[in-house]
């Protein structure tokens, strides 16, 4: 295996990730939510930070860039479309390009909506997908800047990836996401099983990531906006999938359960 991923908690509900290329010894932080959490994870693993890969410009994903760059001299890579909003970027990438971490190649996938320039990073040989705030376990990011149709198209780009892909998302929102998902797709047996798994993990104080993409395809309502059950749940039978997605996202924003 070329890539090892270390998962740790950062801030209040962020996930932090270190991606370590075993052949070169290079280590990237995926986003920079909290300096001390990242440094503790590095110390635990005995790795030296060489890179930061940024998914989007929100503060809880970029706050540690300056301090980490000053201490480790890292190379910071992020979306060209958000270069004016992220301080400290060294390498600007666009969708369809590839970022190298030693021998590991990360494909840059465009997933706008949460922010206009949001990107994800996909290690195809190792099947590791870092989704930032575009896709969560049983959920997706709140649509702060974008519009529904491009955001749905971005999620479709993720959905076509192999089922065995491991999804590493930006936050621990799984229990709340499960409650909403069950409210709109209550007869989905895969969702019921996934929700129970999430409940068990959280009761044990364990992380719910990585989550398997195939399980998300079966259970996550935001990846199923083209399914009849979700169109019916939103009273949009016959509507375009992106319209169903928009209704689901609005319903989640207003959900009190």
TrEMBL record:
Cofactor(s) needed by this chain: Zn(2+)
GO molecular function: hydroxyacylglutathione hydrolase activity; metal ion binding
Pathway given in the UniProt record: Secondary metabolite metabolism; methylglyoxal degradation; (R)-lactate from methylglyoxal: step 2/2
EC top class named in words: hydrolase
Source organism superkingdom: Bacteria
Amino acids binding Zn(2+) 2: 60-61, 133, 171
Classification via HAMAP family: Glyoxalase_2
Protein name as catalogued: Hydroxyacylglutathione hydrolase
Designated gene of the protein: gloB
